[in-house]
Amino acid sequence: MAAWSERLAGVRGVLLDISGVLHDSGEGGGVPIPGSVEALARLKRSQLKVRFCTNESQKSRGDLVGLLRHMGFDISEGEVTAPAPATCLILKERGLRPHLLIHDGIRSEFAQIDTSNPNCVVIADAGESFSYQNMNKAFQVLMELDNPVLISLGKGRYYKETSGLMLDVGAYTKALEYACGIKAEVVGKPAPGYFQSALQEMGVESHEAQ
Amino acid sequence: MAAWSERLAGVRGVLLDISGVLHDSGEGGGVPIPGSVEALARLKRSQLKVRFCTNESQKSRGDLVGLLRHMGFDISEGEVTAPAPATCLILKERGLRPHLLIHDGIRSEFAQIDTSNPNCVVIADAGESFSYQNMNKAFQVLMELDNPVLISLGKGRYYKETSGLMLDVGAYTKALEYACGIKAEVVGKPAPGYFQSALQEMGVESHEAQ
């Protein structure tokens, strides 16, 4: 294996995931992964640019960063690429008014969005809010549209919490896709455009990042 | 269009769906579809054998038949092919002990089934019982199995109730399939084996039925 200095030749920036990389989420915000606070501090002291790219869609960026700072991580809101703000840009650009199937913890990110008379559905990791009633309401909204648009914040199958594996938004997106006979647009990893926007915000080209 | 007598030449039996054919389900058991009580009565007076083949998985056969009789339909429990009893046969044959993700209305059909230490998941149209917590529990059971078996009672996308369209079991089965990376076994229409067993119970060959 090549030395780190060799492997990092030409690399100007590092894009870090958050959940499962910095911490394991869970009750009370979860726990830091051993060594990750120190690793991030070292990266920040280096010449490399650092940015965070997450699919977190249960918490607002503010709440997420607050939790991580409390655990000792050197992180600020402006350094985080998250799917909810990216979705808000898309909604505004395309004149879309969403019905929101989301967790209450992220509702504040959509405060400036017109949700009257919806012409699309936005689905995020709603957790306990994935009730039958809420899923059925989103389904009915889609079925009433001539051109049903479903925007999914990520397409994860599941994630790990301190208490065990948890179903992620991707599973529920598949349910709506199947019921409505449509294909969702994914905002979040692994959509290439999402990584690109994170790189742009970091100010490096894709061949310069790791 | 050929006359009915011509079209029915060689036909010895008729397999009828229930929901959407005899009645529209909904609050208080739903409402009969106009003309269907009389049409069934005429069929029963004819030379044709009649059997019912449903994907109903929220109610036990007894409860379903009770509702339909109350609406005026000439129907008895023994004339109904339903996915829950068919599933029980499969579970017994293969020594499977299910974790049940089902509606309370159908739990009695599984009364004779060993559900201790589950080695498979059975999913039916659980309606309001499709909570995040219940879905996640079924997901966790599957993820803990070396050879995860998921049996789905039908794979309908949605059905119509008097109050509107409702998400059906197929959507939730897709969610679990995606999350676990597996394929469910379907007991119910449109699985050919399910139609075959209904025909067998009616005592006619597939080319003799309509």
TrEMBL record, chains A, B:
If you read the UniProt record, what top EC class would you report for this enzyme, in one word? hydrolase
Keywords of this entry: Cytoplasm, Hydrolase, Magnesium, Metal-binding, Nucleus
Species this protein is from: Lynx canadensis
Q: What is this protein called?
A: Phospholysine phosphohistidine inorganic pyrophosphate phosphatase
Name the principal localization, coarsely classed: cytoplasm
User: Can you say where in the cell this protein is located?
Assistant: Cytoplasm; Nucleus
What function does the entry list? Answer: Phosphatase that hydrolyzes imidodiphosphate, 3-phosphohistidine and 6-phospholysine. Has broad substrate specificity and can also hydrolyze inorganic diphosphate, but with lower efficiency.
In terms of InterPro entries, this protein maps to: HAD-like_sf, HAD-SF_hydro_IIA, HAD_sf, LHPP/HDHD2
**Gene Ontology CC, one term:** nucleus
Q: Which family does it belong to?
A: Belongs to the HAD-like hydrolase superfamily.
